[in-house]
Design a protein that fits this description.
The complex is a heterodimer. By secondary structure, chain A is mainly α. Helices cover about 85% and strands about 0% of the residues of chain A. Chain B is mostly helical. Classes of the chains: A mainly alpha, B mainly alpha.
């Protein structure tokens, strides 16, 4: 029963995650935190952070983590398989169209993408809002140093074009030093 | 047409998938370097097609790109082998991490570092949101902004199921372009 639920949830995640890993976040959260209480919100955001530090797609990372927690290694394999199954079917069909006959299928795909674009932007924006909330607004004190790291990070990304992985390492180290000072 | 053996496809997928940080777009860049520039197996426009479909089809961009590349190299078997190679490394890595996660996360030192990294992740996504709105502002009509706002309201205030949102927006797109 649990296997069936895992399979079905991650099929949906694989099927409806369009527009890359960040757009998939609200969808994964909906399935894993809200519909089934497989992960707490904290565990979910931990996994997002871990996914950012490790290679591999967000959805696969989430599938493996949830699968192991709920049903061990078989659960992890099943959930990961369910995540890629829709891609395998859809993308292979598209490959057939691409390599054997071009034309009307591509037109329909373009129209669909055109329609999905605003929805994808909204999904990523909503993921950004909930991540900001988790990273900076939880608890009752004023989040002075969190905001500092955030604004600094955004500045480095936008003006200095720092790579995300460098920013992750820098912020990790920064938080460690800051909390060291606060503890003194 | 030059090609690659199944074993070479598998091995390359494993190697790339375990060392590529930063998501699907980075992976596509690495593929282009290897298969177009280094090996000369793919033409530039073939790689562009792969990139476009991988980004637009449902699912992870990396996985989609490997399905297409595997298919182009060795048909259906090729795409199966490529998917396996692309998925195996993250599954193994996360499985190992989840074994130590409980002890790992309880350490206050780790918790502090994670907190800092979480803020970085927030900054990375907010940066992406800015870029998305920038590019929307360049070529979009006022309608597109209204649709983004509508989708946000549906998501945040009405907790609209995401698949219904996506299906209806896809239909709106087909209708607007027809």
């Amino acid at each position: 029963m649990i296997y069936l639920q895992l399979f079905w949830s991650f099929i949906q995640i694989g099927m409806f995650s369009v527009g890359g890993g960040y757009a998939a976040l609200p969808l994964i959260k909906e399935q894993v935190v809200m519909n089934h209480q497989w992960l707490s919100a904290k565990e979910f955001y931990d996994i997002v952070t871990i996914a950012e530090m490790t290679p591999g797609p967000m959805a696969i990372n989430a599938a493996t983590f949830v699968g192991i927690k709920i049903a061990g290694i078989p659960g992890a394999l099943l959930a990961s398989f369910a995540t890629v199954l829709p891609s395998m079917i859809i993308v292979t069909s598209l490959a057939l169209v691409l390599y054997y006959k071009r034309g009307s299928g591509v037109k329909l795909l373009e129209k669909t993408l055109y329609g999905l674009r605003p929805a994808v932007i909204a999904l990523i924006t909503s993921a950004a809002l909930s991540l900001m909330e988790v990273a900076m607004l939880q608890g009752d004190r004023f989040h002075f140093y969190e905001m500092g790291i955030f604004i600094m990070g955004l500045y480095l990304l936008r003006s200095k074009k720092i790579t995300p992985i460098k920013l992750l390492l820098l912020s990790g180290a920064g938080a460690l030093i800051f909390s060291g000072f606060l503890a003194l | 047409m030059k090609s690659m053996s199944l074993w070479e496809i598998f091995y390359t997928a494993i190697k790339f998938s375990s060392t590529t940080f930063g998501g699907g777009f980075v992976m596509i860049g690495m593929m282009k370097k290897k298969f177009v520039e280094e090996l000369g197996i793919l033409r530039d426009d073939e790689m562009m097609d792969i990139a476009a479909i991988a980004q637009s089809a449902p699912g992870a961009v990396t996985v989609n790109a490997w399905i297409l590349l595997g298919f182009r190299m060795a048909g259906l078997t090729g795409s199966l082998v490529a998917v396996l190679g692309a998925v195996l490394p993250p599954v193994v890595i996360i499985a190992l991490i989840s074994v130590v996660y409980k002890q790992f996360i309880q350490s206050t030192l780790v918790a502090m570092v994670m907190k800092g990294m979480q803020i970085a992740v927030a900054a990375i996504i907010v940066d992406l949101v800015f870029s998305l709105f920038d590019s929307l502002a360049k070529d979009a009509k006022p309608w597109d902004f209204l649709l983004v706002v509508l989708a946000l309201i549906l998501l945040l205030y009405y907790r609209f199921p995401i698949y219904i949102l996506l299906v209806s927006f896809a239909l709106i797109g087909i209708w607007r372009k027809s």
